[in-house]
Structure to design on (280 residues):
């Protein structure tokens, strides 16, 4: 894992999550803003996947279990797509809240992943 | 989830805010399952009781998620049972893991550590969602019981 990238992801996922929840609660169906925020989070998770694959070859090894790390990462990569699909099929305000919940869940999962990578085995 | 909901007539509890509830249940089921697969496959001998509870909670979250989506009275009862079980689990295991972690074979109180379960320290490692979710779930079920059904009594109270 890359420290600054983790901070960027957690920040953007949290902001996007709060934005989507607020947009949903004021009655907005999924729009470019909420879908865009979620898409950005999805893109960042893909980048994290690439980083995770490359990192061990660059001498950056997890202190905790790589297997457990991947359990979180794969979920976090898939979640925005599940939510995006849901938002496309069901265009109500609750889908926007769902997108927000997914972004917030990813922020939490990213924190967990960073603990597994950096702290757990220490 | 979407496909299940599409293939059958939508029960009232799958609509509106219920979808958010179902999603959060789904994420928690996913998280608990992932964690327990890891704990059981790589570290079971360390704390067999705590890790078995972790696996049990994962199964219950999966059943609860399905029960919230699936229509009909039977599933409504299943939803009540599983959600009550979760609330009991998070309160009981939360209390034991906080005040007497040794009883579960744990080394200490650490909701973020390798040995923690979704229920450890009242779900602190999962932003207390495991504590709040069953209560929200019960409120939701209470307001969305199947039409004509006798309101199921919750063993854990609502």
């Amino acid at each position: 894992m890359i420290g600054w990238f983790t901070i960027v992801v957690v920040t953007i996922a949290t902001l996007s999550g709060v934005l989507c929840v607020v947009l949903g609660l004021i009655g907005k169906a999924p729009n470019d803003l909420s879908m865009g925020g979620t898409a950005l989070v999805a893109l960042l998770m893909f980048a994290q996947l690439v980083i995770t694959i490359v990192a061990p070859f660059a001498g950056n090894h997890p202190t905790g279990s790589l297997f457990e790390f991947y359990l979180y990462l794969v979920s976090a990569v898939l979640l925005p797509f599940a939510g995006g699909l849901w938002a496309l099929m069901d265009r109500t305000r609750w889908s926007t809240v769902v997108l927000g919940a997914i972004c917030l869940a990813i922020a939490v999962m990213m924190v967990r992943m960073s603990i597994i990578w950096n702290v757990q085995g220490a | 989830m979407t496909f299940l909901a599409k293939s059958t007539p939508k029960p009232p509890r799958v609509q509106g805010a219920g979808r958010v509830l179902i999603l959060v249940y789904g994420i928690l089921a996913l998280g608990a399952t992932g964690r327990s697969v890891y704990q059981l496959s790589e570290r079971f001998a360390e704390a067999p009781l705590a890790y078995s509870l972790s696996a049990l909670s994962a199964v219950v979250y999966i059943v609860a998620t399905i029960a919230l989506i699936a229509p009909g009275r039977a599933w409504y009862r299943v939803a009540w049972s599983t959600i009550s079980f979760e609330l009991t689990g998070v309160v009981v295991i939360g209390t034991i893991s906080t005040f007497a972690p040794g009883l579960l074979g744990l080394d200490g109180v650490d909701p973020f550590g390798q040995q923690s379960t979704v229920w450890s320290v009242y779900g602190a490692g999962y932003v207390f969602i495991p504590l709040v979710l069953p209560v929200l779930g019960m409120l939701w079920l209470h307001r969305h019981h199947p039409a004509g059904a006798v309101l199921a009594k919750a063993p854990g109270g609502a």
About this structure: The two ends of chain B are 26 Å apart (CA to CA). The interface with chain A takes residues 1-2, 16-17, 19-20, 23-24, 27, 30-31, 34-35, 37-38, 41-42, 112-114, 125-127 of chain B (CB under 8 Å). The mean pLDDT of chain B is 79. Residues 6 and 14 of chain B are 11 Å apart (CA to CA).
